[in-house]
Amino acid sequence: MAKSVAGAAFLIASRPRLLYSLPSISSALSSTLPRTSPIPSTSPSPSLVPFPLFSSKTQWRCFRIPTLCSQSPGPFSGFFATLRGFRKLRRRPAVKKQPPQEKQVELKVNICIEEQMPDDPEILSIAEMLRLNVPMAMKIALDGLKDSEYKTRDTSINDVGKYEKIEISLLLCNDNFISKLNKEWRGEDCATDVLSMPQHIPELDIPILMLGDIIISVETAARKAEARGQILIDEIRMLMIHGLLHLLGFDDEISDEAEAEMEKEEELVLKSLGWKGKGLIKSARDVNVRQIQAGRSDGNAINETERAGSLRFYKPKFRYIFCNMDGTLLNSRSQISTENAEALREAISRGVNIVFATGKTRPAVISALKVVSLVGKGGVVSEVSPGIFLQGSLVYGRQGGEIFRRSLGQNICREAFLYSLEHEVPLIAFSQDRCLTLFEHPLVDSLHLDYHEPKAEVMPSVEHLLATADIQKLVFLDTVEGISSTLRPYFIKATEGWAGIVQAQPGMLEIVPAGISKGTGVKMLLDHLGIPAKEIMAIGDGENDVEMLQLASLAVALENGSDQAKAVADVIGESNNEHGVAKAIYQYAF
C-alpha cells in the first residue's frame, strides 16, 4: 500500500535539487542510455522553493516532459474535461453556461529511472508511457478538487488556478532503493510498492505548486501485478494514481472513512481515464481476502523464486563471476541443482559473464553442465569460452583459445608413477583433455563416472606414458587417512621447489606445476581480457580457491568449504547442497 511521508518538505528544504537529464525517450528506447553529469534544475528562488528528497549523491535518470498547457479558456478543458464529464454531472446539474476565462496552468512532470536500474526495454517503455499518463491523471485529479465533497482530504491544495506552474516527479526504482527510503523516512525496514513525498508548503505564497515526488518500486509492482493477474503497466498506473492522491491530500491510513473516500476517488480517476484496475486500496483488499481464504498469512514474504525473477530490475554489480565446480557449483553427488542452473541463466541474461576456475578438464565441465542445458550458445561453457582448468595449469581466453599452459617435469611424474606401482595407489595423469593411468581400479573409474572426467586410458609402462603426452596435473586417489598420514607428507618433501601440492577433495591429492594456482590463472585471464579485479566476484570452497578469492572484489566461500577459504572470504554462503551458488548470485551479484 502507498505511504505518504508527512512534513518531508520542511526537513529537506536545505538540500540541493539535482536531476540527471537524458535525451528524449524515443531515442533512449533505441539505444543504451548514457550516464550524464548532474544538471541543476532551474527554479525561481532556491531560498523559497522546497527541494525534493534526493541529494546530489542519489542518481536519477530523468526524462524531462515538454511543457503541457491547456489551450482553451478553462484550466482543464477540452479532451480531459470530456473524460471527467460524468463527475461534473454527478456533482451538479449540467448548466449551459460558458465558464469564466481563467489563466493557463503549466504542468511540469519529471519521469525518472533510478541509476541502479538496468536499461531494461520494458522499463523504458513504461517510462515512455508514463510521460503521457501522468499529465493525464494530474488533470483529471486536479479538475475535481474545487468541488470536492470529501470530508477527510487535506484541503491545503484546492484552488490550483492561482498557480502558474504545477510540478511533480515520478521515480521508478527497485526494492533496494525504496527499502532505504522507507527505513529512513518511515522507520520501516522493508520494501513497499509506492511512496509519496509531499513538497507543498501552504504558508509559502509562490506561483509554483510543487506537489512532490512519487516513488514506485517496479520490482514490487511486478510481483503484485502477477498476484493480481494484470500486466505491469496497469499496476504502475494504479500505483501512480494512489501516490498522486496522497500528494493531493488524501490519506487512507488515518481512518476507515478516509480509506473509503480515497478508494472511491481512485476508482473514479481510473474510470475517467479508461484504465484497467479497481484502484490500489480495493485491489489490495481483494488480494488479502484471497490469501486468508487460501490459509496464507505471508503476503509480504518474498521467496527464492520471486527473488530470482526480480534480478531483471537490478544492474549487475560485477561483470564476471569466477566459480569453482566440485564442492561449489556441484553438490556432494557431483550434480548441479536446478536452482543453481537457473541462477546462472538469470545472471547471463543480465549481462554477467560466468567463468569457471576449476581443477577439472574442460570436457568434464562441459559434461556436467550439459545435463542442465548450459552448454553452447546461450549457456555458460563451450569449446569457445574462456576458463581456467587443471588448477590453473591450462588457461583459455577469447574464443576459447589457449593462452597459457604449464606442465610438470618428467622426473616428478616418473617418481609419482613409480610410487603408484610400488604401493598400488591409483594415480591419474591429466594431459589437456585426456586422462592416463597405469592400471585399472574402481577409484579410477569413479573419476569418470562420478566426476565427469574423460575415461582414463591405461598405459603399458611409465616410460610409454611419459612419452605419450605432456602432463599438467597428477592426482592420487586414496583414503582420507592414507592421503593425510602418508601421501601428503611424502610428496610435500619429494616435490619441494619443483611442484605444488593441492588437496581439493578429501580423497584426492593433486600435484601441479610450481607457482601455479587458480589465482594465477584468473589474473592471467583478466589481463588477457582487460578486466580489472574490482569487476569480478568469486565463489569457491577449497584451499585451492584461496588465491582466486583473495583476488576478487567480492569473495564468497561456501559453508562446506575449508577453513583456509573461509578465512579469506568476504562472506560465507550456504553449502553446496543448499544451492549456495544460486543464493550468492541472488544476494550479492545484483
UniProtKB/TrEMBL annotation:
Cofactor dependence is on:
Zn(2+)
Q: Which GO biological process annotations does it have?
A: rRNA processing
Q: Which UniProt keywords apply?
A: Endonuclease, Hydrolase, Metal-binding, Nuclease, Zinc
Tell me what this protein is called: Endoribonuclease YBEY, chloroplastic-like isoform X1
Looking up Pfam families in the UniProt record yields: Hydrolase_3, YbeY
NCBIfam families membership? Cof-subfamily, HAD-SF-IIB, rRNA maturation RNase YbeY
Give me the gene this protein comes from: LOC120251863
Among InterPro entries, the record links this protein to:
Cof, HAD-like_sf, HAD-SF_hydro_IIB, HAD_sf, MetalPrtase_cat_dom_sf_prd, YbeY, YbeY_CS
Q: Which residues form a coiled coil?
A: none
Q: Which family does it belong to?
A: Belongs to the endoribonuclease YbeY family.
Q: Work out whether the entry's keyword set contains Isomerase.
A: no
Q: Which SUPFAM superfamilies match?
A: HAD-like (SSF56784), Metalloproteases ('zincins'), catalytic domain (SSF55486)
PANTHER family according to UniProt: ENDORIBONUCLEASE YBEY, CHLOROPLASTIC
> Which source organism?
Dioscorea cayennensis subsp. rotundata
Q: Which domain of life is it from?
A: Eukaryota
